[in-house]
């Protein structure tokens, strides 16, 4: 591990928001143990029953609206503010806890809950209100073409041009609270490593792609991330 980094790239998964009271996907009480992916997270499901899919995401909005960032989110903001390097965040999460923690450079590669996209003209609507098959696009006036701006399984990720650049040019890659089971995000560590980054994984337990990580820090993110950030900052101050 280096003493100083110039460009830090952080990948977050639902585990970073677990201590803010939000469900992860694959834990025992995870979302995918309560709902079938085929019913709510594929484009086929959307075309088959739009309002069933809209209801699923509309019903998530109040909880995500009320959720507060935890110490892990806040520590990342501290790193951005106090560490002399560019710090970027690529998140798989559709919650807005990084933004609520006042972090910047946040890229929602799987979309976000408070957006819908018009399948006709591509216009993105930012709203915490319900979106339905009756919603009219503010840009092209089409009705019934607004889809939750969530990347469904099989769809292309968002911001991938930016993400590729960051994976090729970052010298520290940090993964927080993701099981590493969903590609292409699960492959990011390999790319970052290939381009010379030091790689660190934070989780409650070893994950399926832990082979590519130089360091594994196990424990709750709200405890491990503030400690790690403090160490990085102190190392700079000490040098
Ligand atoms: N601190 C650190 N890690 C945690 C914590 C915590 N407090 N709580 C849970 N975790 C870890 C779990 O051990 C697990 O490895 O977070 C991970 C959550 O994994 P998943 O439930 O698989 O969720 P995630 O990796 O975010 O899913 C990736 O899959 O379903 C799709 O699009 C969806 O973005 C999602 C993607």
How is the topology of this model organized?
Elements: E1 7-12, H1 37-40, H2 43-48, H3 50-66, H4 71-82, E2 86-91, H5 97-100, E3 106-108, E4 111-118, E5 124-126, E6 146-150, H6 160-169, E7 172-176, H7 188-194, E8 198-203, E9 215-218, H8 221-238
Helix pairs in contact: 4-8, 6-7
Bound molecules: adenosine-5-diphosphoribose.
Residues 13-15, 18-19, 24-27, 30, 92, 110, 177-179, 181-182, 202-205, 207, 220-221 line the site of adenosine-5-diphosphoribose.
Word description of this protein:
With about 240 residues, this protein is of the alpha/beta class. The protein contains 8 helices and 9 strands. A 6-stranded parallel β-sheet has the order 3-2-1-7-8-9, with helices on both faces. The longest helix is centred in the C-terminal third of the chain and has 18 residues. Bound molecules: adenosine-5-diphosphoribose. The site of adenosine-5-diphosphoribose has 24 residues, from strand 8.
């Amino acid at each position: 591990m280096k003493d100083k980094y110039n460009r830090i790239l952080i990948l977050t998964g639902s585990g970073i928001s677990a201590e803010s009271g939000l469900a992860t996907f694959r834990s025992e009480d995870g979302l995918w143990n309560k709902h079938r992916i085929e019913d709510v997270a594929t484009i086929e499901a959307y075309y088959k029953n739009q309002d069933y899919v809209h209801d699923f995401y509309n019903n998530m909005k109040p909880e995500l609206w009320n959720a507060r960032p935890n110490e892990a989110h806040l520590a990342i903001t501290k790193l951005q503010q106090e560490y002399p390097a560019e710090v970027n965040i690529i998140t798989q999460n559709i919650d807005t806890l990084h933004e609520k923690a006042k972090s910047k450079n946040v890229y929602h590669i799987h979309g976000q809950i408070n957006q819908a996209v018009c399948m006709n003209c591509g216009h993105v609507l930012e709203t915490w209100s319900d979106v339905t098959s009756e919603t009219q696009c503010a840009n092209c006036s089409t009705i019934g073409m607004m889809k939750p701006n969530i990347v469904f399984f099989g769809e292309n990720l968002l911001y991938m041009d930016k993400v590729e650049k960051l994976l090729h040019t970052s010298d520290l890659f940090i993964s927080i609270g993701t099981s590493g089971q969903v590609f292409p995000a699960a492959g990011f560590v390999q790319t970052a490593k290939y381009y010379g980054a030091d790689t660190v994984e934070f989780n409650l337990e070893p994950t399926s792609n832990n082979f590519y990580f130089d360091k594994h820090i196990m424990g709750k993110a709200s405890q491990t991330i503030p400690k790690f950030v403090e160490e990085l900052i102190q190392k700079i101050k000490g040098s």
